[in-house]
Specification:
Elements (H helix, E strand, L loop, with lengths): L5 H13 L9 H7 L7 H13 L3 E6 L2 E6 L3 H13 L5 H11 L2 H14 L5 H4 L28
Antiparallel strand pairs: 1-2
Helix pairs in contact: 2-3
Length: about 160
Amino acid sequence: MTRLGDLERAVMDVLWDVVPGTSDGVTVREVADALDGRELAYTTVMTVLDRLAGKSMVQREREGRAWRYRPAASREAHIAQLMLDALDLGGSRDAALVRFARSVTGTEADVLRAALGSEAGLTGPASTGGDTDGAELTDRVDGPTGRRPAGEAAER
């Protein structure tokens, strides 16, 4: 996955914060207006959105003479993919995962335990050894159906 530059990240933040998943998206003008204080030219925002479409970070749909843009994936899915990409940088994935697991807070560790328990088919606080305050883990990296596509290996 391609890392984003500062302006690309600012545009994606607008899309992630402004465009609900069920929305038809936003126009270049709406994104430019949401980037208040940056004083960017319309054509600059249009170019950034075009490049993000080329990187498959945004989806666009023609509406008359304009395009409407929306994120191709959630912010959480993007961050999770960045984390997976970081594991592919070399060295021992196991060592990197252990180091990461030891660096998270207790609450973050509880969230990870709940997610791993859910992946293993275990449910409820009893399976995770902790209380998740009723929060459900619904955002998945694997795809919109919550399952890996057919034929994709479980391990990365």
